[in-house]
Each structure stands twice: as structure tokens, then as C-alpha cells.
């Protein structure tokens, strides 16, 4: 019931704000009237909090405009996993389009790093394949650096690795320009790989 309310509210009054040139999500928000709908603001924020989604609000009583604002990829992923976008195809398409843009880094368990790098190939050649440097490859193999999604795809294609097996070894992801490491569900991991299939 709570998620159903949020889906309907976002379909009617939700906005995905993004940088028009960089095509990067800035925030997501719900609109309300500060003069008439304080109860709606409070109820929505309570529902979000119960879903572990943090929010803040900004309002102008002169213009009678209010917004409940959500930021951070951790919350955007939570919205996806809650199917918040599903009642408005246009907004869902915007989200999927913007999800294609940022670099997404994956932290693999050591077992799966061994699988993906178990090849009779030099680190210099691996660096060429993933478009990086030998120094970075060395740090990735040691687990000190993550692999970007497209790098995993390239390695799996080049060395005929089972990409679905490798995806099971992803323990956390991190978006470029974000310090937050996120533990997403399998469906979201599958989605980001499908959007970047080379």
C-alpha cells in the first residue's frame, strides 16, 4: 500500500531533474502545495523514511510551490527496486536513458576476480583490452581498484567468460563522482549490464 501510494504520487507529481548537457541526474522530487498539502508532504516523507529513502523539502509559500527532494544514487536505485517509475512510462524511459550515461564501478569478490583474470595474458595486454594502464590492472587484480561495467563486458567477451557468473561476484557498485558504495539487487545489476552491452 505504501509503495502503491508512492508510485501513484510520482506518476502524477514526480520529476526527474537532470543536467541537460551532461545528462546526469541531479535529483528526483514530488510536488505539493505548501498552503494546502502539508499533510501530503509529511505523509510522503514518512513513507519514504519507512523505505529507508532520505528526503528533504523546499517550498515557497508566495508561489505556493513545494518539492520533496531525493538525491543520491542509493535512493534512485531504491526507487527502481520499488518500481516507483512503473506507472509513468515516460519517466521510466527518462530514468533508463540517464542510467546509461555514468560510469559504474564494480567491486568483485576475490574468487571472481581470479576467474576473470585467469588468462595467459600479460597485464599490458589486459590493460589494452580494458582501455586502462598496466598499473591500474595490477591494482584491480589485487582488489585495490574496481572494474567498470564495460571493462567486465570486454574481458568476458575476449576470454569467453560466463558473464552471468561474474555478475554474481559483484558485492558493491559505485557511480562515478559518488563516494557511496551500494549493494544493489540482482535485477539492477542485470539492468546496468544490459544497458551497456557492447
If you had to describe this structure to a student in words, what would you say it looks like?
There is one protein chain. The protein is of the alpha+beta class and 198 residues long. The chain contains ten helices and eight strands. It folds into two domains: 2-99, Endonuclease I-creI (Roll), CATH 3.10.28; 104-195, 434 Repressor (Amino-terminal Domain) (Orthogonal Bundle), CATH 1.10.260. The protein has helices at 2-13, 38-50, 73-81, 89-99, 110-117, 123-130, 134-142, 149-158, 163-168, 186-195; strands at residues 14-18, 25-32, 56-60, 65-70, 104-108, 147-148, 170-175, 181-182. The strands form two sheets. The protein has a four-stranded antiparallel sheet. A four-stranded antiparallel sheet has the order 6-5-7-8. Strand 3 and strand 4 (65-70) form a beta hairpin. The longest helix has 13 residues, at 38-50. The radius of gyration is 20 Å and the shape is elongated.
Q: Helical stretch count?
A: 10
Alpha carbon gyration radius:
20 Å
The string of secondary-structure elements, in order, is HEEHEEHHEHHHEHHEEH
Full CATH superfamily name of the largest domain: Homing endonucleases
Strand content: 15-25%
Q: What is the level-2 CATH architecture name of the largest domain? A: Roll
**Order of strands across the widest beta sheet?**
1-2-4-3
Q: How far is it from the N-terminal to the C-terminal residue, by CA?
A: 39 Å
Count all strands and give the number: 8
Characterize the main sheet. Answer: 4 strands, antiparallel
Structure class: alpha+beta
What average pLDDT do the residues reach?
94
Q: What is the CATH C level class of the largest domain, in words? A: Alpha Beta
The percent of residues in helical segments reads 40-55%
Any low-confidence stretches, pLDDT <50, length ≥5? none
Number of domains: 2
The global form is elongated
Per CATH, what is the topology of the largest domain? Endonuclease I-creI
Amino acid at each position: 500500500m505504501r509503495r502503491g501510494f508512492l508510485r501513484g504520487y510520482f506518476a502524477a507529481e514526480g520529476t526527474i531533474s537532470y543536467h541537460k548537457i551532461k545528462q546526469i541526474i541531479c535529483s528526483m522530487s514530488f510536488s505539493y502545495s505548501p498552503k494546502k498539502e502539508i499533510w501530503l508532504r509529511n505523509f510522503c516523507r514518512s513513507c519514504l523514511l519507512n523505505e529507508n529513502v532520505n528526503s528533504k523539502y523546499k517550498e515557497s509559500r508566495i508561489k505556493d510551490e513545494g518539492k520533496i527532494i531525493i538525491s543520491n544514487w542509493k535512493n534512485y536505485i531504491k526507487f527502481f527496486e520499488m518500481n516507483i517509475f512503473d506507472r509513468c512510462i515516460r519517466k521510466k524511459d527518462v530514468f533508463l536513458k540517464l542510467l546509461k550515461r555514468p560510469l559504474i564501478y564494480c567491486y568483485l569478490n576475490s574468487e571472481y576476480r581470479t576467474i576473470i583474470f585467469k588468462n595467459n595474458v600479460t597485464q599490458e595486454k589486459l590493460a589494452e583490452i580494458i582501455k586502462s594502464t598496466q598499473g591500474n590492472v595490477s591494482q584491480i587484480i589485487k582488489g585495490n581498484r574496481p572494474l567498470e561495467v564495460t571493462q567486465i563486458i570486454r574481458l568476458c567477451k575476449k576470454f569467453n567468460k560466463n558473464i552471468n557468473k561474474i555478475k554474481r561476484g559483484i558485492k558493491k557498485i559505485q557511480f562515478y563522482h559518488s563516494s557511496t558504495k551500494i549493494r544493489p539487487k540482482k535485477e539492477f545489476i542485470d539492468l546496468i549490464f544490459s544497458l551497456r552491452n557492447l
